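Customer ticket, subject: "Can you confirm the structure for Heat-inducible transcription repressor HrcA?"

Message body: Hello, I'm evaluating your service for our small team and ran a test protein. I'd like someone to confirm that this is what the system normally returns, since I don't have a reference to compare against.
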Amino acid sequence: MNDGPNILNEMNARSREVFRRVVEGYLETGGPVGSRTLTRTMEEKVSAATIRNVMQDLEYLGLLDSPHISAGRIPTHMGLRMFVDGLLEVRDLDTDDREKIDATLGSNERDVGTMLDRVGSALSGVTHGASLVLTPKHEAPIRHIEFVSLGHDRALVVLVFADGHVENRVFTPPAGQTPSSMREAANFLNALAEGRTVSELRQVMEHEITARRQELDSLAHAMVESGMAIWENEGQSYERLIVRGRANLLEESAEAEELERIRNLFDDLERKRDIAEFLELTEDGDGVRIFIGAENKLFSLSGSSLVVSPYMNSDRKIIGAVGVIGPTRLNYGRIVPIVDYTAQLVGKLISDRGKG
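Agent reply: Thanks for trying us out. I re-ran your input and got the following:
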């Protein structure tokens, strides 16, 4: 995959132009591009036979493929990767696209989750793909924690944050809990929690439980542990991925094989597998990353592409990501600036909220 730029550099001008025009034609139409079509568009006047010979060379290099005999060529995933890395011309963000995204985010929603849901809808609408938005964990300081019994095997843990955000989770408490042990657990956590975020509280809690073991009875101790685990377990991340625009992909796909692959993709997204890995996709570097076809280890994306970018808080820490999934023939030159702009805008909005 890393050999792409070297292969490009070794190509002569004619081969580069044939390769570029085949990929651009495929991205525009979704179909194979034939030699006769290229004879009409090539800058250099050459015969169809000459172009066919160049195409065969590019096929031998693994950059093009012929889906049917004499039906022209389409780029392979390796060819698309090389085009994206070496020849893609990323356009400036279209004014109309910018206005649609700005209009969606201009509603000044108080709730971050609602705002990001609107971002997902805007992204899928503007790009005609399916959008993914990974929302941040809530990192405002905690104001208050409370445990509420809902029955002998169900309890509610409520977190009130300093910015007014409230989260609650239903969970199964350790056996034998009483109203007094729940109060004791909440008092213990509240004494530690003020001014700390959930992750900061988790760090100091282990030490404090050990240091103040005499003050905390075993029931309250168990309650503290299980209550806080609700925010640390995998279930928390399952609620962090917003998927919008599924219908856009289904409309694109007429073939049964294609529809089946997209259904598998949606099954993966419904199960919200490996959300941490989704975020890690973006952590190797700032800015937009493109994953094509089989490069996607994360979801069943063998015939799809993912364009994804992280967004950051005011401390330049990556806290979430936005992305677009579509067929491999995505209009990358248009989608990349849309995803990049949206990610930067979301980061700015979340940072501004933190200052407020």
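A couple of notes from the result: The beta strands are 64-65, 74-75, 130-134, 142-151, 154-161, 166-171, 241-244, 289-292, 304-312, 318-327. Residues 125 and 308 are 16 Å apart (CA to CA). Feel free to reply with more questions.
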